[in-house]
C-alpha cells in the first residue's frame, strides 16, 4: 500500500526508482567480547588489545588514504573536492594522538576488549556534541560516529559487505556516511533516503554537489528492499510503494524536469540580456571554496556573496587563523579568475553560532550581538580577517562587505580599521590590492532608510532581502508558524529596496540583491522594475533567472539605460 512520509530536504530534486537498502552502520556494541566481568578479566590481554587497536587504526588509515587518492585523482568529477575534504577530516580525527590515548586508556582502566573500548570512547566523544541544539555540532558528532563505526567494523573483523549497485536506484540508509558515499557510483544514484542526517552533514553536501535528490527523516524500518519509491523535495515528500496514479504522475514530472534541465544547460553560454537588450549581472552566492567550481560552471559574472562563516564551522574551538583565512580567500579569488568576488566578513550571531565563538545567551539573538556589532567589539578577530582579506586581494578583484549595518558610525569605524590594516601591511612590506572596494549589506530597515548617507561613504550595496524582510515585517525568517507573513514582495520591503537602489543610482554606487529573492523567478521582473541590474544567488538558480531575464523588458525611465553592444 502507498505510504507518504514527510521528510527534511537535504538535496533538491524529484526521482522515482527502486530501493536498494544500505546496511545499518550505527555503532553497536559487539557483545561477543562483552562477557561477564570476571570471565573477561581472565581472558583479557591488555597489551594484545592495545596492539590490535594500532593495527586496526593502520588498516583504517590505509583505507582512508586510498579513498583520498581516488578522490584526488578524480578531481575533475563533481563532488570530488568535497569528498577529498571530508576524507581528510576523517584522517585528521584518526591521527589525533588524543584519540589513541583515550582508546588505550579505556582498554587498560576499564579492562575491556578493543570493540568495547571503541564503543565507550565513541559514546563519550559524541554524547556531549549530539545533545547540543546546534545543527553543526550534531553533524560533527556524526563524523566521529562514522569514523568509530569504521574502526569498529575493522576491529570486529566484520567489514560490512555493501550492496553492489549495478543499475540506477534509490539508496536507503539509516545513516549514510561520506565514506559510504565514496564507495558507490553516484551516477547510479537516482536519489537517497535516510533516517538521520541534516542539511549541513557532509553526505548532504556531497549529494547536493552531484545534484542527487536526498530526503531524511524517513524511518529505515518502513523501507523494503526492491520496493518502488518517489522522492519529491518540492513537496518535502517520500512516497513508498506509490500506487499506479502516483507512479504515472511522477514519471511525467521527472520527464518534464529532465527537459527543463536540458533547456537550462543550453542557456549556460548565453549572456543575460533582457529582451530589449539591457545587460543584467548574474552573480553567485557561495559558502565554501568548493562552490567556486559551480559558480564558474554556471558562468556567473562573479561572486556576489561569499559567506565566510564556514571557516568558523570548520575551525573547531579556535578562531580561524590569518594564514588559513588568507589561503581560503586567495583560493576563491584565483578560482574566479579576475571576476569580482564580494567577501562578507563573519556574520556571527543570530542563527549563526559556532564552537569557536563564545556568545552569551541572549533574549533576542537576531536583535542582539550580531554581524559587525560583534566584530567591532572583538577587534582582534576583525583585524585578523581584514588582514587576511587585504593580503589575498592581490590575487583577484576583491570587494569587502560588512553585514548587519544600522549606523553610519559603524561603517566609519570599519573603514578606519581597513585603513589601519593597510598602513600596517605597508609598514611590513606586505602587498595588498590598491583597488579593493568596500561595501555594506543593506539588510536592516535602518540601513535602507539611511542608504543616501551610506552611499556617500561606501563603494557598493548588497541588499540582503532575507534579513531585510524579517526585520521589516517583524517575522522570524525561520519560524514556519508565521511563514505566511514573511513576504519579500511586501510593499514595505519593496519600498526599502527601491530607496536603496535609488540612493545607489544617485551616488553612482553598485547595487546588488544577494538575498534568496534574487534567485526566485517570481520576483525577477519586479526587481528589474525597481531598477535592479545585479542579482546574486545560489549557482544552481542562475539559468532559471537568466530565462526570466531573456524574456523581460525594462520599463519606465530605466529604458534609456545603456544597452549591451
Ligand atoms: C540576507 O540576509 O539576505 C543575506 C544574504 O544574508 P544571510 O542569509 O547570510 O543572513
Ligand atoms: Mg543576512
From TrEMBL:
Enzyme active site: 202 (tele-phosphohistidine intermediate), 514 (proton donor)
Ranges for the PEP-utilising enzyme mobile domain? Answer: 165-234
Q: Which positions are annotated as binding phosphoenolpyruvate?
A: 307, 344, 466-467, 477
A Gene Ontology term for the protein's cellular component:
cytoplasm
Q: What reaction gets catalysed by this protein?
A: L-histidyl-[protein] + phosphoenolpyruvate = N(pros)-phospho-L-histidyl-[protein] + pyruvate
Q: Tell me its cofactors.
A: Mg(2+)
List, for all copies, the residue spans of the domain called Phosphotransferase system enzyme I N-terminal: 7-140
The UniProt GO MF terms for this protein read: kinase activity; metal ion binding; phosphoenolpyruvate-protein phosphotransferase activity
Question: What are the protein's UniProt keywords?
Answer: Cytoplasm, Kinase, Magnesium, Metal-binding, Phosphotransferase system, Sugar transport, Transferase, Transport
Domain PEP-utilising enzyme C-terminal, residue spans:
265-552
Task performed by this protein: General (non sugar-specific) component of the phosphoenolpyruvate-dependent sugar phosphotransferase system (sugar PTS). This major carbohydrate active-transport system catalyzes the phosphorylation of incoming sugar substrates concomitantly with their translocation across the cell membrane. Enzyme I transfers the phosphoryl group from phosphoenolpyruvate (PEP) to the phosphoryl carrier protein (HPr).
Q: What protein name does the entry list?
A: Phosphoenolpyruvate-protein phosphotransferase
**Organism from which the protein derives:** Treponema parvum
| Upper taxonomic lineage | Bacteria, Pseudomonadati, Spirochaetota, Spirochaetia, Spirochaetales
Amino acid at each position: 500500500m502507498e505510504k507518504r512520509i514527510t521528510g527534511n530536504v537535504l538535496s533538491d530534486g524529484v526521482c522515482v526508482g527502486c530501493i536498494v537498502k544500505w546496511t545499518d552502520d550505527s555503532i553497536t556494541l559487539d557483545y561477543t567480547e562483552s562477557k561477564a566481568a570476571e570471565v573477561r578479566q581472565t581472558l583479557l590481554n591488555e597489551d594484545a588489545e592495545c596492539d590490535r587497536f594500532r593495527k586496526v587504526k593502520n588498516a583504517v588509515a590505509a583505507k582512508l588514504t586510498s579513498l583520498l587518492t581516488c578522490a584526488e585523482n578524480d578531481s575533475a568529477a563533481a563532488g570530488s573536492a568535497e569528498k577529498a575534504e571530508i576524507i581528510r577530516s576523517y584522517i585528521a580525527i584518526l591521527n589525533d594522538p588524543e584519540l589513541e590515548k583515550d582508546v588505550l586508556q579505556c582498554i587498560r582502566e576499564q579492562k575491556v576488549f578493543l570493540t568495547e573500548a571503541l564503543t565507550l570512547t565513541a559514546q563519550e566523544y559524541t554524547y556531549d556534541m549530539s545533545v547540543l541544539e546546534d545543527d553543526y555540532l550534531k553533524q560533527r558528532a556524526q563524523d566521529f560516529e562514522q569514523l568509530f563505526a569504521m574502526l569498529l567494523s575493522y576491529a570486529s573483523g566484520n567489514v560490512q559487505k555493501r550492496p553492489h549497485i549495478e543499475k540506477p536506484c534509490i539508496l536507503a540508509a539509516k545513516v549514510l556516511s561520506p565514506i559510504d558515499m565514496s564507495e558507490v557510483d553516484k551516477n547510479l544514484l537516482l536519489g537517497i533516503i535516510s533516517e538521520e542526517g541534516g542539511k549541513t552533514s557532509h553526505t548532504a553536501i556531497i549529494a547536493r554537489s552531484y545534484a542527487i535528490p536526498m530526503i531524511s527523516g524517513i524511518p529505515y524500518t518502513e523501507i523494503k528492499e526492491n520496493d518502488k519509491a518517489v522522492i519529491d523535495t518540492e513537496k518535502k515528500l517520500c512516497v513508498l510503494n506509490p500506487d499506479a496514479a502516483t507512479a504515472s504522475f511522477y514519471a511525467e514530472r521527472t520527464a518534464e524536469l529532465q527537459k527543463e534541465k536540458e533547456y537550462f544547460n543550453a542557456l549556460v553560454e548565453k549572456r543575460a540580456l533582457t529582451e530589449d537588450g539591457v545587460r543584467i549581472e548574474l552573480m553567485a552566492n557561495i559558502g565554501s571554496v568548493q562552490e567556486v567550481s559551480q559558480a564558474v560552471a554556471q558562468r556567473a559574472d562573479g561572486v556576489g556573496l561569499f559567506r565566510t562563516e564556514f571557516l568558523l564551522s570548520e575551525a573547531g574551538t579556535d578562531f580561524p587563523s590569518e594564514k588559513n583565512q588568507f589561503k581560503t580567500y586567495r583560493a576563491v579569488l584565483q578560482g574566479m579568475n579576475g571576476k569580482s568576488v564580494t567577501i562578507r566578513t563573519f556574520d556571527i550571531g543570530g542563527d549563526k553560532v559556532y564552537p569557536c565563538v563564545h556568545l552569551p545567551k541572549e533574549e533576542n539573538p537576531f536583535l542582539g550581538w550580531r554581524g559587525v556589532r560583534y566584530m567591532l567589539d572583538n577587534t582582534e578577530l576583525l583585524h585578523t580577517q581584514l588582514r587576511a582579506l587585504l593580503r589575498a586581494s592581490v590575487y583577484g578583484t576583491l570587494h569587502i562587505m560588512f553585514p548587519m549595518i544600522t549606523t553610519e558610525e559603524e561603517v566609519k569605524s570599519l573603514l578606519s580599521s581597513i585603513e589601519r590594516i593597510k598602513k600596517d601591511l605597508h609598514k611590513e612590506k606586505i602587498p595588498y590590492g590598491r583597488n579593493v572596494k568596500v561595501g555594506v549589506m543593506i539588510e536592516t530597515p535602518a540601513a535602507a532608510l539611511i542608504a543616501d548617507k551610506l552611499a556617500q561613504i561606501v563603494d557598493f550595496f548588497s541588499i540582503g532581502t532575507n534579513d531585510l524582510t524579517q526585520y521589516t515585517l517583524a517575522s522570524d525568517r525561520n519560524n514556519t508558524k508565521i511563514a505566511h507573513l514573511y513576504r519579500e514582495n511586501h510593499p514595505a520591503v519593496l519600498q526599502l529596496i527601491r530607496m536603496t537602489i535609488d540612493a545607489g543610482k544617485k551616488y553612482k554606487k553598485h547595487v546588488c540583491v544577494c538575498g534568496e529573492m534574487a534567485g526566485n523567478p517570481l520576483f525577477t521582473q519586479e526587481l528589474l522594475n525597481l531598477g535592479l541590474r545585479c542579482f546574486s544567488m545560489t549557482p544552481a538558480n542562475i539559468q532559471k533567472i537568466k530565462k526570466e531575464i531573456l524574456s523581460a523588458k525594462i520599463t519606465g525611465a530605466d529604458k534609456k539605460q545603456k544597452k549591451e553592444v
